């Protein structure tokens, strides 16, 4: 038995068990993809359409006990997990069909691995309001596993919930403690200087970067922001206090 059915197999199963025409099923599939703002593949959307129509797929199964990340497969639902926040990205607001929404992505992990967790709307707002830090332990209830660009990711189901078991303690690194090859570091420092942003071309794609200097009571370093973060750096002024999260240092330079 294969690990998952192809999109075509799922569509055929829906046709056979519901007698609905293919055109109507495809319309439902597109609506499901639009609902998730393009975050679903055809395969993931087909699984959810089948679920909505009460079609039981031969590989669909549920995990009633707490699952491990390594055991997750696309299409699973009603999953409970205990995870730790590895990385939290900045929330993004969007507007679709004249309706505003919010999306927030996290990387969460347990002893078996890591996976992306996507929070939507009220769940994203709650995460921000509670000021949940990296390192916090979370209990996730009634999750589902989707697939996006060939990678598995988690999302809370319509009746899902997120519980904070233990808040992570803020841990920052002093600038004098920076060493080559460090990953996922957080620093708090003041802006000393911001340099003009630059454009660059890589693999026929244009990007932007901005260099700036940071200083604290222990040292000064040069930092670089890329692409989407450049606009935030351009708005900074000397002596502004900033916190940089999930940074890394480059070999040969104390550069964040």
UniProtKB/TrEMBL annotation:
GO biological process, one term: response to ionizing radiation
GO molecular function: DNA binding
Domain Replication protein A OB: start-end pairs: 86-162
InterPro entries per record: NA-bd_OB-fold, REPA_OB_2, SOSS-B
Coiled coil: none
Keywords assigned: DNA-binding
Protein name, per record: Replication protein A OB domain-containing protein
Originating organism: Candidatus Iainarchaeum sp
